[in-house]
């Protein structure tokens, strides 16, 4: 997803015009925007919970005001609203200062998170007498080779599902790259290396919670607030909030801003699009959605079935159908003679491919017989998106007007 945006300097909603048409691209942009707003609201609220817990640890007298049934509005307590709007405001402030501010924030947030996590682990180690054991992760019963392999594949599928929105959004950032070599180098250090290093640090933290607190704690918020040291609790909460803001802005806020501004570029600037996304996150009231876990899983699973098919369709269109040829000028033109006009501005082949691939992915969500394979729906959606778009484009070829590519 990085290459077409890097070559043209265009964000995802504009690149999508290459595949879906100059007007049809509104559909994938709207899908991505809705998903981004949903996740943006959820992650903002989850980060605000850490702030609420810290506030109550410092000022226990505010406990009644943290109870939504006694003092609340729209299902959220007054303390919860204060924490939510604080995190919401911090993210909006970083976003409003532009892409340079976002890049600088992410640049320093990463090392800060590592440093704070290391301090938390040092405190936990001091409480264990500087002893660390990973025996707690050893299974109590022997695991067969097949079950072990299935577990690894399942974990890989979950990791792909986690990174799928970031992969889809990556063109919004690669367009600012200086070279593909620097982008690839940044991807290596920022994704596999960083992911592995932080996962190891997280495992150390989890392993240390057992001897310190008597049971394993997987929630970093709980780990932070369970510490007897107020300073350690503050460090833990700052780590969580900083990590959430960095991920939330890059994975959700920026993409939603581009998507909504693309709906009416003559009326909505990038900042206005971001403001719409931020307000939408409040109207989403994620705390009410979280009150019914089955509803939030269903909503996000259904929306998530659109992500990997979109990646598959756009990649197959760029690499297999158009052979890495893209006419930059036509991406910004609604002239009926332009190559991306297709039929009235819509590419029926891409839209049909999206319908087929998302429909197949939805089967894993709604069919009980396929429930055990739900985690693999993203892989199937990606593969079917590529297959459907490639085959349909071969059977229903579009007669492109031969022109010299500009990118």
UniProtKB/TrEMBL annotation:
Chief location bin: membrane
One annotated Gene Ontology cellular component of this protein: plasma membrane
Alphabetized InterPro entries for the sequence: Pur-cyt_permease, Uracil/uridine/allantoin_perm
Keyword Membrane: yes
Subcellular location: Membrane
Any one Gene Ontology molecular-function term assigned to this protein's record: nucleobase transmembrane transporter activity
Topology class, membrane: Multi-pass membrane protein
Keywords: Membrane, Transmembrane, Transmembrane helix
Protein name: APC transporter NCS1
């Amino acid at each position: 997803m990085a290459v077409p945006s890097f070559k043209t300097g265009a964000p995802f909603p504009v690149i999508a015009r290459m595949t879906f048409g100059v007007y049809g691209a509104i559909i994938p942009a709207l899908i991505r925007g809705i998903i981004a707003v949903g996740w943006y609201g959820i992650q903002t609220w989850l980060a605000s919970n850490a702030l609420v817990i810290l506030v109550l640890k410092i000022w226990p007298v505010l406990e009644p005001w943290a109870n939504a049934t006694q003092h609340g509005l729209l299902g959220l307590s007054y303390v919860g609203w204060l924490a939510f709007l604080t995190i919401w405001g911090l993210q909006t402030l970083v976003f409003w200062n532009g892409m340079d501010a976002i890049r600088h924030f992410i640049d320093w947030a990463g090392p800060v998170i590592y440093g704070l996590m290391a301090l938390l682990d040092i405190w936990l180690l001091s409480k264990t007498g500087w002893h660390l054991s990973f025996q707690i992760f050893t299974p109590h019963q022997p695991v067969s080779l097949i079950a072990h392999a299935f577990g690894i594949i399942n974990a890989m599928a979950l990791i792909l599902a986690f990174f799928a929105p970031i992969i889809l959004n990556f063109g919004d950032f690669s367009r600012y790259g200086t070279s593909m070599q620097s982008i690839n180098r940044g991807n290596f250090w920022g994704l596999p290396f960083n992911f592995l290093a932080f996962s190891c640090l997280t495992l150390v933290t989890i392993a240390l919670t057992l001897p310190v607190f008597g049971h394993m704690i997987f929630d970093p918020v709980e780990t932070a607030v369970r510490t007897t040291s107020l300073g350690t609790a503050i460090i833990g909460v700052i780590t969580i909030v900083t990590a959430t803001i960095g991920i939330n802005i890059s994975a959700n806020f920026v993409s939603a801003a581009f998507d909504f501004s693309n709906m009416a570029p003559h009326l909505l600037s990038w900042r206005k699009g971001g403001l719409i996304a931020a307000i939408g996150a409040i109207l989403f009231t994620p705390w009410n959605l979280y009150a019914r876990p089955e509803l939030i899983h269903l909503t996000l699973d259904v929306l998530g079935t659109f992500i990997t098919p979109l990646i598959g369709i756009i990649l197959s269109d760029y690499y297999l159908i158009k052979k890495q040829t893209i006419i930059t000028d036509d991406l910004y033109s609604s002239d009926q003679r332009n190559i991306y006009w297709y039929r009235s501005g819509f590419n029926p082949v891409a839209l049909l491919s999206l319908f087929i691939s998302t429909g197949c992915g939805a089967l894993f969500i709604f069919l009980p017989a396929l429930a055990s394979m739900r985690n693999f729906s993203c892989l199937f959606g990606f593969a079917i998106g590529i297959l459907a778009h490639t085959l349909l484009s071969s059977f229903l070829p579009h007669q492109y007007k031969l022109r010299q590519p500009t990118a």
